[in-house]
Design a protein that fits this description.
Strand content: 5-15%
Order of helices and strands: EEEHEHEHEHEHEHEHEHH
Number of helices: 9
Shape: globular
Distance between the termini: 43 Å
Mean pLDDT: 92
Low-confidence stretches: none
Strand order of the largest sheet: 5-4-3-10-9
Helix content: 25-40%
Structural class: alpha/beta
Length: 262
C-alpha cells in the first residue's frame, strides 16, 4: 500500500491527528501528551499564551523547539479585525521560518456556545488568503459555508463535530458526509470529539483529519488518551480506505454453505 499522506496547501503530513496545547496541568504533561499523540501539527491560542515567556520549561520554549509544525489559532477573537491582526502577529513571531504561514482561523459569534460567526469567518478568510496565509477555518458543519470557505481559497475546512469542549462526538454525520463528498480540499473535524471512538468515526466517514484538545487534556490520563487517539485516527483512516462491508438486515453465514458434509 502506498504511503498515505495528508496534503494541506504546501504542507505534507503523515499524521492526520492535530492536537492543541491548552488545558494541561503543566508544560511537562503537555510535552508528554504531544509526543504520545504522534501529531506533527500542534495548535496554540496566541491570545491565551504568554508569548514573552521563553525560559526553560515554558510553553513557548516547547513550541519553538521545532519538533512540530505550529498552527497558531485565533481563539478568543470575535471580529474580523481581531482575527486578522492575530494572524499577522503569528506571522511576525516566525513560527514557520521561511515557509508559508499556516493559521487556524476562528471568529467566534457567541460566547456561550463558541459557535463561529460564519459571515465574519468567510470575510476574514478572504483577507488572509490574499495576504499569503494558509488558512484552516473553524466553521459550523454547514456544507454551504464550507463551500464558500473553499472558494475563498482556504487550504482546508474544519467543521465542528459538536460544540468546543463538549465531548459529544459527531452530532450530524450526514452533514459531515455531504461536506466531504463535495470538498476539493481536506476536511478536518474540529471540536466536539470526546474519546477514541469519536475520532475513529470521523475518519471512517472519510474526513482527512481530526483536531482535538480537551478530549486529551481533560482525560484522567492525558498521555494514555493521546496514544489512544493516535491509534483511533490511524484505524479509522485504514477502515475508510479498506471500505466497510455492506449493512444487511439478516444474518449472512461466514462459512460457505455449499458442499456441507452430510
Amino acid at each position: 500500500m502506498s504511503e498515505d499522506l495528508l496534503q494541506v496547501g504546501p504542507y505534507t503530513f503523515r499524521s492526520r491527528l492535530f492536537v492543541g496545547t491548552g488545558k494541561y496541568k503543566d508544560v511537562e504533561q503537555t510535552r508528554l501528551a504531544l509526543e504520545a499523540s504522534g501529531a506533527e501539527v500542534v495548535t496554540v491560542a496566541l491570545r491565551r499564551v504568554e508569548l514573552k515567556e521563553r525560559g526553560e520549561g515554558s510553553l513557548m520554549q516547547l513550541l519553538l523547539s521545532k519538533k512540530w509544525t505550529i498552527l497558531p489559532n485565533t481563539a478568543g477573537c470575535y471580529t474580523v479585525d481581531e482575527a486578522v491582526r492575530t494572524c499577522r502577529l503569528a506571522r511576525e513571531l516566525g513560527f514557520h521560518g521561511d515557509g508559508a504561514p499556516i493559521v487556524k482561523l476562528e471568529v467566534i459569534g457567541d460566547a456561550k456556545t463558541l459557535f463561529p460567526d460564519n459571515e465574519a469567518t468567510v470575510e476574514a478568510a478572504r483577507i488572509l488568503v490574499k495576504e499569503g496565509f494558509v488558512v484552516l477555518p473553524y466553521c459550523i458543519d454547514d456544507p454551504i459555508v464550507c463551500r464558500k470557505l473553499e472558494e475563498a481559497g482556504c487550504a482546508a475546512v474544519m467543521p465542528l463535530a459538536a460544540p468546543i469542549g463538549s465531548g459529544l462526538g459527531i452530532r450530524n454525520k450526514h452533514n459531515v458526509m455531504i461536506i466531504r463528498e463535495h470538498a476539493k480540499v481536506p476536511v478536518i473535524v474540529d471540536a466536539g470529539v470526546g474519546t477514541a471512538s469519536d475520532a475513529a468515526v470521523a475518519m471512517e466517514l472519510g474526513c482527512d483529519g481530526v483536531l482535538m484538545n480537551t478530549a486529551i487534556a481533560h482525560a484522567r490520563d492525558p498521555v494514555l488518551m493521546a496514544e489512544a487517539m493516535r491509534e483511533a485516527v490511524s484505524a479509522g483512516r485504514k477502515a475508510f480506505r479498506a471500505g466497510r462491508m455492506p449493512k444487511k438486515l439478516y444474518a449472512n453465514a461466514s462459512s460457505p454453505v455449499e458442499g456441507l458434509i452430510e
